[in-house]
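Now for a specimen:

…
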Amino acid sequence: MSDTIQCDTHGEMQKTFVCSHVAEASSFGLGFNRDEPSEHKPFPDAWCDDCEVVFQAHGGWTDKTKGLATIRMLCSGCYERVRVRNTRTDVTLDDLAELRWKCHTCEEWHTGPCLDFSYDSPYYWSNDTPKDPFVSYDKLPDTFLDEDICILDGEDFFIRGIIHLPIIGTAETFRWGVWGSLSKDNFKKLVSMFDDPKRVELDPMFSWLSNRIEEYEDTDRYSSSAASTLNLKLYAHIQEPELRPIFELEPTEHPLSQEFYHGITPERVKEIMTRRLRETE
């Protein structure tokens, strides 16, 4: 029997088994219990905290206890998604519900977690860079910056997109609004379809991350040389005209890539909030 399964989302992946409670798309924070992953079994069978009560009461899974839990088969990609959503953490987003903070943009006070931080331009853009006059997207200048695209000297091309980091124990994501480079051909292709709904049919576009996110350059946290995010490999997935592209990171050991694939903790979200926001209460 094959150890793989064909998933509509992830393609051909390894088979895994979880209880039906955590497998539900709407589930989060239910707990994720399993044996320690190993090289030979990286995705051990997993179940929620309620099923763990049954497991402990009967000293493990037996023919009797297996009848008390409904098992679902998932691909390993979906398994990782439900693990991130349902793993319990010491700090939760609920702990941030009363945090008040002042927005940089609107100067208003808000309450609750702030899950979006962004960059207005690529790392390579200087505020002193003179902009050429803008005519239209059909005839772009050699040096240009708006909220969605950037051109430098007619040679370097960038788009603004979003990196979604799943927040462990929740159904939410933490979002970095960043810029990624594109080849000239891909940039022209995207701009030519800027307002065309069919642009969602474009293949993912290779990109280099073009911002330095300071939260990943903390040598005390990572006990190594600065883990710069500049030039990490990305793929830009083009969305509908009113939505920015979604960036997918290449799997690596870099901390940002690790959070992209394995989730970011609410405690880490709180750290970033308190560092980034000018005023908090």
Notes: The chain has eight helices and 15 strands. The chain has a mean pLDDT of 88.
